Amino acid sequence: MQLLVCVTLVSAFAVYVSGAALDGPKVGLAWANGNNIPLTNFLTPHVGAIHTWSPHCPDGSNSIQCYQMLWGADSGRITDFNNTVKPAGGNKNVILGFNEPNEAGQSNLSPQVACIFWHSIIEPRAKEGYTLVSPATSNAPGGIQWMQQFFQCCSDCTVNAMAVHWFGTSVSSFESWVSQWHVVFNNRDVLVTEYGFQDFNGQQHSADEVVAFYKSVGTWMDQQPWIKKYFPFGFIPSPQSGNPAALMTADGQPTALGLMILNEAY
Ligand SMILES: *[C@@H]1O[C@H](CO)[C@@H](O)[C@H](O)[C@H]1NC(C)=O
């Protein structure tokens, strides 16, 4: 009887264990700078992973996990992905699915078409040792529904963990949106592969308000064992004047806010 209970518990959880590949320091670099900006100033002991919205890993990223992404399903990206992604090993053990397929201006895929390409291009990588992470929808209202429909046609797919994006200004909205991904999708681990303070109504916010936001959500994410990584958006060169949410200076250094996150100094 005791044994039976154990076996049942193990099999109930086994399907969604994302594995050691997602463990380690939680801060991630969402890195659109290729090799143009040296990674050195961004690699603190708190940084565990990088993704580049592509299967490519920049120079100097060997000391952290590099998550390789199939951004979209156009033939150029599929060929690049096939040619670049080798069997898992070293610092390459995680694959990220499509980027914002629910957005016309992003990878723009219906759940059904995304399933077809998951089956043919991404799923074979599970057998090569990869941990597979879901597509990442935007936090537009239909994001959850897109993902539920994806799982209806991809019920046999290996999806070890969920990815999610979020932009806004409310800490409580952030926490409830991210929590939904864990609860609705069978307690899978979650990677927040893009998040940022952004006011879609164009209102100005003080630097104190922006810092308070990142402190609150960072503290909260560090406390949730099912949140494995979070990638603030973005470490891209930006003038700081008038932009209290800038994480990188115009000449490629972390801002004070960027450093706070890179050091988990909440
Ligand atoms: C990519 O690789 C998959 C198998 O992993 C294969 O089915 C597919 O045809 C390949 N596509 C291209 C464009 O190379």
What does this structure look like?
Residues 28-258 form the Asl1-like glycosyl hydrolase catalytic domain. Residues 1-19 form the signal peptide. This is Asl1-like glycosyl hydrolase catalytic domain-containing protein. Keywords: Signal. With 266 residues, this protein is of the alpha/beta class. The chain has one domain: TIM Barrel. It is built from seven helices and eight strands; from the N terminus they run αβββαβαβαβαβαβα. The protein has a five-stranded parallel beta sheet, with no helix packed on it. Strands 6-7-8 form a three-stranded parallel beta sheet, with helices on one face. Helix 2 (75-84) links the parallel strand 3 (65-69) and strand 4 (94-96). The longest helix has 17 residues, at 207-223. Mean pLDDT is 93; it is low at 1-15. The structure holds 2-acetamido-2-deoxy-beta-D-glucopyranose. The site of 2-acetamido-2-deoxy-beta-D-glucopyranose has 7 residues, from helix 2 and helix 3.
Instruction: Return the domain count.
Output: 1
Low-confidence stretches: 1-15
CATH architecture: Alpha-Beta Barrel
How do the strands of the widest beta sheet line up side by side? 1-2-3-4-5
The rough form would be described as: globular
CATH domain class = Alpha Beta
Percent helix, as a range, is 25-40%
Strand-residue proportion:
15-25%
What fold name stands as the CATH topology? TIM Barrel
Distinct small-molecule ligands in the complex = 2-acetamido-2-deoxy-beta-D-glucopyranose
First-to-last CA distance:
47 Å
Number of strands: 8
Please give the count of helices.
7
Radius of gyration computed on alpha carbons: 18 Å
Give the biggest sheet.
5 strands, parallel
